[in-house]
User: Which sequence fits this backbone?
């Protein structure tokens, strides 16, 4: 007989139902409300955060010629948590990587994060991307991100432009704008103008389905931000002059810096040996960087700002200017010169004696300038010899030596004008005098200048005592509206004294050491230098500006270990100025010789 | 005539109301689960949601038809219906069509029908018929075995069709047997078996054997040590150890690799997120990401973009969890529990044994489906592919569940008339 009613058993059945229901509700509460790892996993399933990289700003020269632009490439990204069994062989073949390489990359990405995208293969070409795009749905967990790479239509300006690299962990830690895989300017104007050039990154949140197919944007794109392209730069550089200078400097170690005196705008900024800036772009950068950094002639060194040289005879006008300013030297001052027999510094040129300041400059007389220097250090009336030296050093530094000029480029060296303390340390306090430091009178000894400082010295001469911090960027932005203001410096020397020094420099080009390399129809004012160099052969130097009466260009050329200033530095500077001022070269033979000579 | 006039007046409204609510909620969730912007009308019959509407309307006709049928029809022809279904199960083994590994479908034109779904109510009828026999003496062993055989035949045939999930459903009749006087010890024993089986799989055979021996030793120390007690203890120990070994052998020899894998995933022994564990993991992600309030109707991403497999059938609860959150999930769970409780309450008020036993059968089957289906989506039971009643997409299952429930509703309508 079946039981008609059994209340306790019905209650047991009801209890079982309720208990199971309660367990399920508790479980649901746990996974839906308490444990939020599921939400994270769900977002990782569906959402793809695609950074919108802005194109870096373009770079033009002073005449609007394009010097640096961008080329599209694609970064292949991976989200390890999403990667499923894929046809590895086919995938590797498409990317032209090995199966081991595939595993290595994947493991590296997993190590970084299973749930955040990381770079799998950078900068794949448009062609490879074309093949890959069609098959993307078969490679779950992979997606591509468009990027841009720098491209240089002419292989010039390597040191000026610098290069772009990936951010390091150190940069990411310091600056929250940068994320792993971002690019950043590492040197040159790419670094100096990074904030202007980089633009503003955007973010697109896309949704994908289980087959890794895009199915739309998250929340109708409400959270997306568009990228904003970087600002263009208009340089003060004259692209043609830069290119011409690099050709002249081929096969020579050294530097050429040309500046427009009235504005401080750098017209040419050359360091040699140089390299094709396209070498330090994209996937080949690492390999080429290693090659370049191991090269014994140091092509990566930016000699224009980071190379320091004794200025040699180019420095002589500095002593004259100081002497004139302090009244220790006048146009009537005459000193005698015994030529090669002079003591304590012999003369390297044959000329009249006794001589005045003009002849001293155009013949580059060592004893004359030693006398001027000695008279200042011994009797200028500032107090002790040491005090006189401190005063001398102040004058020198007011002309832009021994300190950074405040250019817009980075990694500028300050050169060296030794302080009184340095001499105290070397010789002992009170144990040094003009005789001890006599080399300074002819730009030798401890004094060191960069080619940029030497060019700026020519600028200061041309401007009769003032200079604007030399810089390479004229304007920023497409409308060329934004202009930076650079500081103007005024030297301690009165304007009238410069006229004397400049007259001496003009005579250098017409009567003196530079007379053989004149520019037809243009007068230059310059000074050669043959700087003794403790490490090897003399450096060949020349600094000048032209036209002497209305300066348009000031220039400094340094050729390492090349001997006389008049042999190499002078003709190169003279050709550059001829090219810039007249637009043509009327001395093809000189040009030919300069371009084809190899000096290292 | 009195009976006919009162059909609609006597219908149990909580039952029909819950039924309609679940069916409509199911339909809305199927729409969300397979939502396709190109076919965004919920009535588009080229899509699952459009088809489900056809199933729903035809189910309502079926329900109406049952309500209009003489209630004695079902008790009278119970064995005949059961026999007919057994024949169908045999036939489908011979000429059935195989769909996703199970040879359990009749393909008629564009439609497929799964007899296993309909065998449930037929078995329910047969068992109810058996227990309602006059002068049934349950103390006879024969009378305990017969209902088990009634359950075992369809279960075995369905197992042969390679549809393990549906075969297991028949185990739920143990609740009916319990209600009809089967000793409570059987339920306890059942629990113990489950416990031993799970601990064997998790901790290994030897560990469980020592556990049983240890517990027996403790019992021996504390209990009254007379001959009868000691003998039953020894018997229990031998049974326990035998079970332990048979679980090991059973899993090793009888289960297929994919079933073993599923069990291991469930027990947390392996974390195979790409293989056997993929479904459960994605299902938990979908439900878990719903949060308290859910992402909103049609805003679920996990189900819509196919991260969850079988999202309109076996894993339909994921859509509920993702789009309606904890709030909606609780409501659905509560609706099912309310339905089950209502069935038990209605069953208890029946005067005829047939109706009451049938009612318990309905509750058992629905409960089993509910427990297994939702349990697997939240990772509490292994993935066994059986639908969520009234919710999951599918004509056969909706028809079968509708018939199952409406026969009971019809019995209830006539609860007074029969006497």
Assistant:
């Amino acid at each position: 007989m079946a039981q008609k009613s059994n209340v306790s058993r019905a209650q047991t059945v009801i209890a079982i139902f309720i208990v199971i229901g309660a367990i399920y509700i508790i479980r649901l509460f746990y996974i839906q409300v308490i444990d939020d790892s599921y939400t994270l996993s769900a977002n990782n399933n569906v959402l793809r955060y695609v950074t919108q990289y802005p194109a870096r700003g373009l770079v033009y020269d002073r005449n609007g010629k394009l010097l640096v632009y961008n080329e599209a490439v694609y970064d292949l990204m991976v989200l390890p948590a999403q990667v499923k069994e894929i046809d590895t062989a086919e995938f590797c073949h498409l990317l032209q990587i090995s199966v081991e390489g595939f595993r290595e990359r994947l493991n590296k990405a997993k190590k970084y994060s299973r749930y955040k995208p990381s770079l799998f293969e950078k900068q794949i070409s448009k062609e490879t991307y074309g093949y890959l795009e069609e098959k993307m749905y078969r490679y779950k967990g992979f997606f591509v991100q468009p990027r841009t790479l720098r491209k240089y239509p002419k292989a010039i300006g390597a040191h000026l432009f610098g290069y772009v690299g990936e951010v390091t962990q150190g940069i990411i830690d310091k600056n929250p704008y940068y994320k792993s895989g971002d690019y950043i300017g590492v040197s040159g104007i790419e670094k100096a103008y990074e904030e202007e050039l980089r633009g503003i990154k955007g973010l697109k949140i896309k949704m994908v389905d289980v087959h890794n197919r895009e199915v739309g944007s998250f929340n109708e794109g409400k959270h997306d931000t568009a990228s904003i392209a970087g600002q263009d730069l208009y340089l003060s550089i004259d692209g043609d002059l830069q290119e011409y200078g690099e050709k002249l400097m081929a096969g020579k170690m050294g530097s050429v810096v040309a500046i427009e005196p009235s504005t401080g705008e750098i017209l040419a900024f050359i360091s040699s040996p140089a390299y094709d800036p396209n070498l330090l772009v994209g996937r080949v950068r690492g390999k080429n960087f290693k090659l370049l950094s191991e090269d014994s002639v140091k092509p990566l060194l930016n000699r224009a700002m980071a190379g320091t040289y004794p200025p040699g005879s180019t420095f002589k006008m500095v002593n004259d200017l100081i002497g004139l300013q302090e009244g220790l030297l006048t146009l009537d001052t005459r000193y005698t010169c015994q030529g090669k027999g002079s003591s304590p510094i012999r003369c390297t040129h044959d000329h009249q004696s006794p001589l005045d300041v003009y002849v001293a400059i155009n013949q580059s007389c060592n004893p004359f300038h030693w006398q001027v220097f000695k008279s200042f250090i011994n009797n200028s009336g500032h107090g002790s010899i040491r005090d006189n030296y401190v005063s001398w050093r102040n004058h020198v530094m007011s002309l832009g030596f021994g300190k950074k000029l405040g250019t817009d480029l980075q990694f500028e060296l300050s050169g060296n004008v030794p302080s009184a303390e340095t001499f105290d340390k070397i010789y002992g306090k009170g144990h040094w005098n003009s005789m001890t430091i006599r080399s300074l009178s002819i730009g030798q000894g401890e004094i060191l200048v960069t080619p940029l400082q030497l060019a700026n010295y020519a600028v200061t001469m041309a401007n009769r005592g003032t200079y604007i911090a030399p810089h390479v960027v004229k304007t920023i932005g497409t409308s060329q509206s934004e202009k930076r203001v650079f500081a103007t410096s005024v030297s301690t020397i009165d304007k009238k004294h410069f006229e004397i020094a400049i007259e001496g420099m003009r005579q250098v080009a017409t009567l003196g050491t530079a007379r053989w390399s004149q520019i037809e129809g243009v007068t230059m004012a310059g000074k050669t230098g043959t700087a003794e160099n403790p490490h090897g052969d003399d450096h060949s130097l020349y600094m000048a500006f032209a036209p002497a009466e209305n300066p348009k260009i000031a220039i400094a050329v340094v050729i390492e270990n090349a001997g006389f200033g008049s042999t190499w530095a002078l003709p190169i500077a003279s050709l550059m100025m001829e090219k810039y001022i007249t637009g043509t070269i009327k001395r093809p033979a000189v040009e030919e010789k300069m371009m084809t000579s190899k000096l290292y | 005539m009195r009976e006919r006039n009162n059909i609609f007046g006597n219908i149990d409204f909580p039952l029909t109301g819950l039924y309609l609510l679940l069916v409509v909620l199911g339909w809305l969730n199927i729409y969300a689960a397979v939502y396709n912007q190109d076919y965004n009308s919920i009535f588009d019959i080229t899509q699952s949601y459009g088809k489900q509407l056809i199933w729903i309307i035809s189910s309502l006709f079926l329900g109406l038809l049952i309500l209009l049928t003489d209630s004695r029809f079902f008790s009278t022809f119970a064995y005949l219906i059961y026999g007919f279904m057994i024949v169908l199960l045999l036939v489908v083994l011979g000429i059935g069509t195989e769909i996703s590994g199970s040879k359990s479908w009749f393909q008629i034109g564009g439609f497929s029908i799964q007899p296993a779904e309909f065998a449930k109510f037929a078995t329910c009828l047969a068992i109810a018929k058996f227990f309602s026999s006059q002068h049934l003496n349950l103390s006879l062993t024969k009378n305990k075995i017969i209902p088990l055989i009634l359950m075992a035949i369809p279960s075995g045939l369905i197992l042969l069709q390679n549809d393990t999930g549906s075969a297991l459903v028949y185990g739920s009749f143990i609740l009916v047997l319990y209600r009809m006087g089967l000793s409570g010890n059987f339920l306890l024993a059942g629990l113990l078996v489950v416990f031993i089986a799970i601990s064997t799989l998790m901790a290994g055979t030897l560990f469980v054997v020592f556990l049983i021996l240890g517990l027996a030793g403790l019992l021996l120390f504390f209990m009254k040590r007379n001959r009868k007690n000691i003998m039953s203890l020894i018997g229990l120990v031998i049974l326990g150890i035998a079970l332990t070994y048979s679980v090991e052998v059973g899993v090793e020899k009888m289960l297929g690799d994919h079933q073993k894998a599923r069990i291991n995933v469930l027990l947390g022994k392996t974390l195979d997120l790409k293989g056997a564990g993929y479904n459960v993991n994605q299902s938990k992600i979908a439900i878990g990401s719903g949060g308290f309030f859910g992402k909103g109707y049609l805003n679920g991403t996990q189900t819509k973009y196919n991260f969850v497999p079988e999202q309109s059938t076996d894993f339909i609860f994921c859509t509920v969890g993702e789009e309606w959150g904890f709030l909606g999930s609780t409501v659905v769970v509560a609706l099912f529990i309310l339905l089950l409780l209502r069935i038990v309450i209605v069953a208890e008020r029946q005067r005829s044994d047939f109706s009451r036993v049938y009612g318990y059968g309905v509750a058992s089957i629905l409960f089993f489906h509910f427990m297994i289906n939702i349990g697997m989506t939240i990772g509490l039971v292994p993935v066994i592919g059986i639908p969520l009643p009234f919710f999951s997409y599918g004509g056969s299952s909706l028809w079968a569940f509708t018939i199952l429930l409406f026969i009971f509703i019809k019995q209830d309508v006539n609860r007074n008339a029969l006497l």
